[in-house]
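Progress report, Aim 2. The chain analyzed during this reporting quarter is listed below.
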Amino acid sequence: QVQLVESGGGLGQPGGSLRLSCAASGFPLDYYGIGWFRQAPGKEREEVSCISPNDGITYYADSVKGRFTISRDSAKNTVYLQMNSLKPEDTAVYYCAAGDHLPTPAYYSGSFHYSCYAPELYDYWGQGTQVAVSS
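Predicted structure tokens for the chain:
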């Protein structure tokens, strides 16, 4: 059974940290592009961070760049989102998604670049985990 399960959400303090996990079953995460997206109340779903299959090239939205880190543990078939320096505006439901036919990283300016893609391009989604940042 193909499944993505997020965990690790909860209440965080401004300036604090949380680590989200996205555990996959039924398929190998290494061969899929993985994205973290979030949706705050009354707002559209937005991209947060994504990692390419195989090479693990990463992308971060400007709003989280320098604060969040995406990583993948192949042995555990799990992708993580380490969130540091939390802000109240990080409050949202966080979703992980996996896609098998996403665009490959692009090479320009001397390096490879990856991105998050439109949600409809991802094949599998988790149920979401709530993150609330408040003092």
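The chain has a mean pLDDT of 96. The longest strand covers residues 18-25. These observations will guide the mutagenesis work planned for the next reporting period.
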